[in-house]
Design goal:
Elements: E1 5-14, H1 30-37, H2 49-66, E2 68-75, E3 79-85, E4 90-93, H3 107-120, E5 129-136
Length: 137
């Protein structure tokens, strides 16, 4: 078994260490939580596969249009989280450098992050901007 050491670059905001998105099964799933907050409950896929597929496709469309992601960094055992603009996310794996051509940004990104965090009940205690962080796991 190998250890992954990655670098992540993105435009976003770092969340406090005690922020998590665990559901009742202790799965890390902010997308389900977002859907619940929208009032769109996930059907029981074991008894209702057809409606589950409809729900899943709707969730995927909503999340794609949102343009936001929540990513973990630090380590697999002790994850820390960031809310990011999905299109800015870059990863460099050990031995695989990634060229960054520009760190341009949209003035709308910070508003989008603020709106998402407010909707999700997440308090922002760090600056929104470009971040470079690591992951070990």
């Amino acid at each position: 078994m190998s250890t992954s050491t990655d670098a992540y670059l993105f435009y976003g905001v770092m969340l406090d260490e005690d922020t998590d998105f665990l559901n009742e099964e202790n799965d890390w799933d902010w997308e389900r939580l977002y859907m619940i907050k929208l009032g769109i409950k996930e059907p029981d896929y074991t008894n209702d596969n057809k409606n589950y597929v409809i729900w899943r496709d709707k969730k995927n469309k909503i999340i794609k249009e949102l343009g936001i992601d929540v990513v973990s960094h630090c380590s697999g055992d002790y994850p820390m989280y960031a809310v990011i603009i999905k299109e800015t996310y870059k990863t460099a794996w050990r031995g695989s450098p990634v060229q960054i051509h520009s760190l341009d940004y949209s003035v709308h990104w910070a508003k989008k992050i603020n709106k998402f965090c407010e909707f999700m009940g997440i308090e922002i205690n760090s600056k929104i901007g470009w971040w470079l962080c690591s992951y070990w796991g």
